[in-house]
Design goal:
heterodimer, A: about 100 residues, mainly alpha, B: about 250 residues, about 85% helix
Chain lengths: ~100, ~250
């Protein structure tokens, strides 16, 4: 298990497997994250895996990437294997704690 | 409208004080366990702004003697309002924008202005010759502090509603807890209550009205504190049935 930035990890892996401009790839991942209510910074590997499997295929398909579903399924499995790095309290984590 | 409004204002204030103290004490006890800043700041802010400021200013305005008590209440009220507003703004910065330069500048600026206004207000409490002069809450120093409070609560509400929008999207994917999503929404409502409670006296002052007797201002402030109390209660001390309903 390695600690890595899930957003960067997904962008790097996609860059290796898809013939698409780097900026377009990152843009597609950003759009998928935004549609799921996340920001690139601070997203956890388990959350990123769900975003990749549920939201990213549509974004990649709209960029003309073929077989985006199976590509994203493999990518989701990879990213869920990352270990979460220690980060500062996210706002939702604080509000979870404030409930007692 | 005098007596019903007086009763409504009194009831809303009593509920605001009781809920603020209950929520504040619970959060301070949580902070003692976790040693974390957000619960400390929010607990302190609730205890001061809701639990201490209204009773202290009521004493300063409604009690005539002994003079030392009136001055002490007015002094403590200004101090509690200053510190309470400052920690609430620090809470918003720490929770929502901890790494943001502009947010840190905003916090420093707000705390600086609050500190200045608070010191002027406290000095006036000690220096004014006649304590009846302390009954006018709308001094320039206090108005400046209300402006800072207004901006602070506006920021709080904006951040909370923005986060709530994101958490709702996450919820659709099963990635966030419905209770937390609702708690963030309720915190936005508390922020809006603060905007109204600080904004109404500012508007009344701009219109040249006496804040203590202006009926629309008193009504808006009482409604705002009542709504804030309800939202804070459901957010931080929710009944079990409410939690079950959210999770259903």
């Amino acid at each position: 298990m390695q600690a890595a930035d899930p957003f960067q990890f997904v962008c790097d892996r996609l860059g290796e497997r898809v013939q698409l401009d780097r900026l377009a790839l990152r843009g597609a991942v950003r759009l998928a994250l935004k549609a799921a209510g996340f920001e690139p910074r601070g997203v956890r590997p388990t959350e990123m895996a769900v975003v990749v499997s549920r939201m990213l295929p549509k974004e990649l398909a709209s960029c003309g990437v073929s077989d985006s579903e199976s590509l994203c399924a493999k990518l989701a499995a990879d990213v869920s294997g990352l270990s979460a790095s220690a980060t500062a309290d996210s706002p939702d984590a604080v509000f979870r704690r404030l409930g007692g | 409208m005098g007596l019903p409004l007086d009763l409504f204002v009194l009831l809303a204030t009593l509920v605001y004080v009781a809920v603020g103290l209950a929520v504040g004490i619970r959060l301070l006890r949580l902070a003692r366990r976790t040693r974390a800043f957000p619960e400390l700041a929010l607990g302190l802010g609730e205890c001061l702004l809701a639990g201490a400021v209204p009773p202290l200013f009521i004493v300063a305005q409604a009690v005539a003697e002994p003079e030392a008590l009136v001055r002490a209440a007015a002094f403590a009220g200004h101090l509690a309002y200053t510190v309470g507003c400052a920690v609430m703004i620090a809470f918003t910065w720490r929770v929502f924008r901890p790494g943001s330069g502009w947010a840190l500048v905003l916090v420093y600026g707000a705390v600086g202005v609050l500190g200045g206004g608070g010191l002027v207000g406290m000095a006036r409490v000690l220096l004014v010759p006649d304590v009846t002069g302390l009954r006018d809450p709308q001094t320039t120093a206090f108005l400046v502090m209300e402006w800072v409070s207004f901006v602070g609560f506006l920021w709080t509400a904006g951040e909370a509603f923005h986060l709530h929008g994101r958490l709702r999207k996450q919820r659709a994917l099963g990635l966030s807890d419905p209770v937390v999503v609702n708690r963030v929404l309720l915190w936005g409502v508390v922020g809006l209550g603060g905007v109204a409670a600080a904004g109404a006296p500012i508007l009344a002052s701009l219109l040249g009205q006496n804040v203590s007797t202006h009926v629309p201002t008193r009504l808006v402030c009482a409604l705002a504190t009542a709504v804030s109390s309800g939202a804070a209660q459901l957010a931080f001390l929710p009944p079990a049935s409410y939690l079950r309903w959210l999770r259903a």
